[in-house]
Amino acid sequence: MDYITIHRMLRGIQLTAALLIGAEWLCFMSGKQAGEVVLRAYDMFCMHARRRKGRFWDYGKWEEYLRAKGAAYHYGKWINPVSYLTLIAVMAGAGFLIGLGWGLPAGLAAAVPAACLPGLLLERMNRRDNEAMLAELNLVYNALATQIRAGVFVTDALAEVYGSVKQVRLRDGLQTLSGDIVMKADLDQALERFQGQFDNRYIDALCITILQAMESGQAVELLGDIADQIKDMELTLQGRRKEKLDRSITFYQLGIFAAIIAVVLYACVEHMFLNSGFWN
């Protein structure tokens, strides 16, 4: 029974591969027209997916998730909920085919981590972005506090602060925020859109602080408190990096020491055998 099942699956994979090769050949032969047909069909499918909303599928929530994790900066502008889930399916299929060489259970077991890989990588890259933003956010908080203390209005200070930021994702977000403030003059919606571009608690705190500052007028004190928290977090991260570097140095030193001991032992053993006439 297992043999028949695997045989049928292999036949199905071969048929799918043949269909894909045939479709690629048709696209190659038809040229630009076939490519336009495929793109049009893909756009129609994405449009249909936007309209559908069910228990396990919500295009809007998937879009918010990808935007907050910065998927477009890591995977490219082509990423959207449909292409992201397609990537997951392709990775799961690749893992299944690789594991299938060791049997059907191995194929199914390999498909699960392969399907999780795009999401895990996205989480890791977003976490790395957040760490890289800490220094920039500290500058943003201090710059806002300085300008507000000098009498600059909160919205005007926000509209000008992005020029000193170098981290691409944060700079783009602040630039969009600046444009929204200038063009729409609706700070609440502008901050909500800006906050939705990140999964970062310090950016969440910045947006909340600005809204509270507009109501209470205590922006400088609130910004200063959060800037101190960011500075403490920076020191913590620097300590972690130093510990990681120290562990790496210790590991390399142990490796070099072990290699030296191995060479010395080999030389001693060889010398003993030569002196005892073992090789004669």
Quick structural overview:
With 280 residues, the chain is an all-alpha fold. The protein has helices spanning 2-30, 32-51, 59-68, 71-74, 81-100, 104-149, 154-161, 168-184, 187-195, 201-216, 219-275.
Radius of gyration: 29 Å
Quaternary status of these chains? single chain
* Biggest sheet overview: none
**Mind telling me the CATH class of one domain?**
Mainly Alpha
Q: Any idea what the CATH architecture of one domain is?
A: Up-down Bundle
**Tertiary shape:** flat
Total DSSP E strands: 0
Mean pLDDT: 75
Secondary structure category: mainly alpha
Number of helices: 11
- The end-to-end distance, rounded to whole angstroms, is 63 Å
CATH topology of one domain: Receptor-associated Protein
Can you give a write-up of this model?
By secondary structure, the chain is mostly helical. The protein has a domain at 129-235: Receptor-associated Protein. Helix content is 84%, strand content 0%. It is built from eleven helices and no strands. The protein is flat. The chain starts with a helix and ends in a 5-residue tail after the last helix. The mean pLDDT is 75.
